[in-house]
Amino acid sequence: MTVEWKDMMLDKVAIGPVSARIYQGADYGKGPPIVLYLHGGAFLDSDTHVDRPVAMSLAKAGAIVVAADYSSLSGNLFPKALEVAFSVFTYLANKRAGLGDRKSLLFVAGEEAGGNVAAGVALKARDQMPDALDGQVLISPLLDPFMGTSSIRKAEAIGMRQRWTEGWSHYLSGGGCHPYAAPCLCSRISGVAPALIFTAEDDPLHDETIGYGTRLKQAGVGVRQHVLPAGTGWPSIYGGKSDGAPDWQENVSHHFGNFLRDVSVQPQLH
How far is residue 186's CA from residue 177's CA, in Å, rounded to a whole number? Predict the structure, then answer.
């Protein structure tokens, strides 16, 4: 499916106007799902509306993807980054921003740092807007501020260890480590929206991603978890060095399409 995009300003968001790039397939159907997409960048980059291959992959599955610039208003600091993202989520939940219709399912998605914020939005939605979120898509989410897993040792080889260290220091510099800021440390994760989770065998974030998915399952949350093989260029998603051309887009689009159908038929994925 060909994906088109346009830039727009979400000017009625409670926290203030938020710019966004909207991705949608040329042949999306009636009542298409809406995805709030949160970009990566190690809590250091702003969204300058560069092309977002993850967002395009989600749109190819038939969704309208709202790639919101949560960084400019927040400076990539917790809790402001989460507040901006959740404010956009609330706006989409209540008004859909003229996208889709009232029957459109609503998801939150993000990779790396954006995956962290997406997981935080899912936790906050459970606590403040039950049933408003239909699913969360976590793509190598950056969840562990202590960077203590075995797989994170691979981060040096792809040029990400120092960047993630600096990113965590920046993101948490506004205060303590709240569970919304580091979801892997959250003691109460039951009741959140069903999750679609991606990582890869050569992903330094593999262990914390798998660990969070396992905890969600143990808490009774519906989880679809996919581990791509090494060599697909997966680390390029968040700017890591990778040999060869990226070869993961169709995989993400395919599994997201299946996830959409699962949620539509069986919302709780139990």
Answer: 10
Look at residue 37 and give its three-state secondary structure.
Answer: strand
Ranges under pLDDT 50 in the chain: 270
C-alpha dihedral sign at 116, 117, 120, 126: negative
Please report the pLDDT score of residue 125 as a whole number: 97
- Is beta strand 3-10 parallel, antiparallel or unpaired with respect to 18-25? antiparallel
Predicted TM-score (pTM) of the model is: 0.94
What's residue 28's pLDDT? 62
**Distance, CA of 204 to chain centre:** 17
Q: Cα 169 to chain center, whole Å?
A: 20
Using CA atoms, how far apart are residues 30 and 38, in angstroms rounded to an integer? 24
Q: How far apart are CA 107 and CA 96, in angstroms?
A: 12
As a whole-number percent, the residues of the chain with pLDDT over 70 amount to: 93
Strand ranges of the sheet holding 106-111, from the earlier edge strand across to the other edge: 3-10, 18-25, 64-68, 34-38, 106-111, 135-139, 195-200, 223-228
